[in-house]
């Protein structure tokens, strides 16, 4: 139990730190950051339940005011901005990535983690992001979805890296990769 709590807290902290890395601001008001990489890893390494809880902890801490969202933002005000869909979608997409990684036991863990990161935090998160931007920016879903396209190339690289990191951890420290335990 203590080990699970420590992993959950560690991944919430990792996602927060990845938001402090230099970001690239786009015209949509949604920056490109490394936080989605942390969301991918939370799911693929910790599995569905623990990955969801790690990312949910991160989101709750940000919403109560800790400046851990991209650019050092925090508080409920972020829910009134164009990133709202991403913030809401983070825990759900970590769950999806973890669920896929857990279920695809007959596939090498690196491949399963890469595909899981593409389906969950890459594709599904784009839908959440577009829904949030459509609502906040007053655009149609199609118009808002076009605004998510600049993220896809970077997210594809992050998904491959998440697969590589998950595979490496599974080889070097198998007990850490609880998605395959």
From TrEMBL:
Localization annotation: Cell membrane
Membrane-spanning ranges: 29-46, 53-70, 76-100, 112-138, 144-165
Gene3D superfamilies per the UniProt record, alphabetical: 1.10.1760.20
Record bears the keyword NADP: no
GO cellular component: plasma membrane
Main location: membrane
Domain of life: Bacteria
Keyword annotations: Cell membrane, Membrane, Transmembrane, Transmembrane helix, Transport
Signal peptide feature range: none
GO terms of molecular function: biotin transmembrane transporter activity
Membrane topology: Multi-pass membrane protein
Keyword Transmembrane helix included in the entry's annotation: yes
Family under the similarity heading: Belongs to the BioY family.
Designated name of the protein: Biotin transporter
Species in which this protein is naturally found: Paracoccus aminophilus JCM 7686
């Amino acid at each position: 139990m203590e080990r699970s709590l420590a992993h959950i807290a560690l991944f919430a902290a990792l996602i927060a730190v990845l938001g402090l890395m230099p970001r690239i601001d786009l015209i949509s008001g949604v920056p490109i950051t490394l936080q989605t990489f942390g969301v991918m890893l939370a799911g693929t390494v910790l599995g569905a339940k623990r990955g969801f809880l790690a990312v949910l902890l991160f989101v709750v801490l940000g919403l109560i005011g800790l400046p851990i969202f991209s650019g050092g933002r925090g508080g409920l005000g972020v829910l009134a901005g164009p990133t709202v869909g991403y913030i809401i979608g983070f825990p759900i997409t970590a769950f999806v990535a973890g669920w896929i990684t857990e279920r695809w036991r007959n596939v090498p863990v690196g491949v399963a983690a890469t595909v899981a990161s593409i389906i969950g935090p890459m594709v599904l998160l784009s839908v959440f992001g577009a829904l949030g931007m459509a609502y906040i920016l007053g655009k149609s879903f199609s118009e808002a979805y076009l605004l998510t396209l600049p993220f896809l190339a970077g997210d594809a690289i992050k998904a491959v890296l998440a697969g590589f990191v998950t595979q490496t951890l599974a080889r070097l420290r198998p007990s850490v990769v609880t998605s395959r335990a």
